[in-house]
Write a structure and sequence with these properties.
single chain, about 400 residues, alpha/beta, Aspartate Aminotransferase, domain 1, Aspartate Aminotransferase, domain 2, seven-stranded mixed sheet, three-stranded antiparallel sheet, globular, binds pyridoxal-5'-phosphate
Length: about 400
């Protein structure tokens, strides 16, 4: 019998972390590799937020806190939900965790029983299915196809709901596609959920502030107030505030769910890093103008990459509404052979050959549950992106 738990055998390691690790190993071995795998802004944390972290250290704010966050941060989070989403929450409805990842994980651990189903649109952020599996649940995938702009339809959601459905996980703008649901599109989905009062909504709004071309972000409890009592609205400072390493995420929802999540956190990580919590207070309460400046850079890079990908025969690349990813389809390249002799039968073959032959690291679509595609993170310098796009073009032109 294995020493390892049976639950662990249901789970695979994060493929995005694996690609980044491999790209870094190749770089360390002296290979010229451009990494387009990492899901984090290349900008530094803004100075006023860094200063708040330093001040917290100097002021002795270096001890344990309440398991799910300091009062000042909970207040700042309530103000954020009011300001950005017109949602009213009180501090007892708020949980702060070690990144958005831990918040989602706590919520699934706190609620899933064996056999409970979790509806996840595919392609999905890589961690949703494995977190659901770790918590004993069963992921149920609904295809968000290229033909539907990587969004699911109300009919698809209706068809996926069973008496065992516990959660519907919603993520807009999406990792990996950048697709965002308009208010009307989201309302059509919440109308379905209104008919099934045993289904709860876990909305992952991590990319709320990273939107382009005037896209208007909205979140389920705002679009359909009748869902407020069964919605967990999740967010964090990692992406928009360039704070991935500080590890602060948060959620707001019904008090009994928040209390259950607090119980798990109190017996696992105690509290999110105290210093980071004070920096997050400054992030949420301080000036926000840098976000628009960063978004102007992201939009320029998005346009550069989309243009380059669509110039390649065999690749189709929709224009995303937000986040910092594009998710081109390589349907027109499947079945070809690379200059180095690799058969491109899957998107995994494509990504592997692209890395080995051209030194460009991307993440293959199967990792996100929709093939044949690959994900480019354009949160890197224009120079690196231009060089990488030229290499991808050369690689694809060399396919026979
Ligand atoms: N949700 C989505 C959609 C993400 O892309 C990520 C990070 O990549 C997270 C949650 C987790 O964010 P954090 O770094 O705050 O744990």
């Amino acid at each position: 019998m294995s020493f390892l738990s049976a639950t662990l055998s249901r789970v695979k390691p994060s493929p995005t972390v694996a690609v980044t690790t491999l790209a870094n190993e190749l770089k360390a071995a002296g290979k010229d590799v451009i990494g387009l795998g990492a899901g984090e802004p290349d900008f530094d944390t803004p100075e006023h937020i860094r200063d708040a972290g330093k001040r917290a250290i100097d002021d002795g704010k270096t001890r344990y806190t309440a398991p799910d966050g300091i009062a000042e941060l909970k207040q700042a989070i309530c103000a954020k939900f009011k300001r950005d989403n017109d949602l009213d929450y009180t501090p007892s409805q708020v949980s702060v965790g070690t990144g958005g990842k831990q918040i989602l994980y706590n919520a699934l651990m706190a609620t899933l029983n064996p056999g409970d189903e979790v509806i996840i649109p595919a392609p999905y952020w890589v961690s949703y299915p494995d977190m659901a599996l770790l918590a004993g649940g069963e992921p149920v995938f609904v295809e968000a196809s290229l033909e539907h702009d990587f969004k699911i339809t109300p009919d698809q959601l209706e068809a996926a709901i069973t008496p065992k459905t516990k959660w519907f996980i919603f993520n807009s703008p999406s990792n990996p596609t950048g697709a965002g649901y308009t208010r009307d599109e989201l309302k059509a989905l919440t109308d379905v959920l209104l008919r099934h009062d045993h289904v709860w909504v876990m909305t992952d709004d991590m990319y709320e502030h990273l939107t382009y071309d005037g896209f208007a972000f909205c979140t389920p409890a705002q679009v359909e107030p009748a869902l407020y009592d069964r919605t967990l609205t999740c967010n964090g400072v990692s992406k928009a505030y360039c704070m991935t390493g500080w590890r602060i995420g948060f959620a707001a929802g019904p008090e009994n769910l928040i209390a259950a999540m607090r119980k798990i956190q109190s017996q696992s990580t105690s509290n999110p890093c105290t210093i980071s919590q004070w920096a997050a207070v400054e992030a949420l309460n301080g000036p926000h103008d840098f976000i628009a400046d960063n978004n102007a850079v992201f939009k320029r890079r998005r346009d550069l990459v989309v243009r380059a990908m669509n110039a390649i025969d065999g690749i189709t690349c929709p224009i995303p509404d937000g986040a910092f990813y594009v998710y081109p389809s390589i349907a027109g390249l499947i079945g070809k052979t690379s200059q180095g002799g690799a058969s491109i039968d899957t998107d995994e073959d494509f990504a592997k050959a692209l890395l080995e032959e051209m030194g460009v690291a991307v993440v293959f679509g199967a990792a996100f549950g929709l093939s044949p595609n690959f994900r480019i993170s354009y949160a890197t310098s224009d120079d690196a992106l231009e060089k990488a796009c030229t290499r991808i073009q050369e690689f694809c032109e060399g396919l026979t």
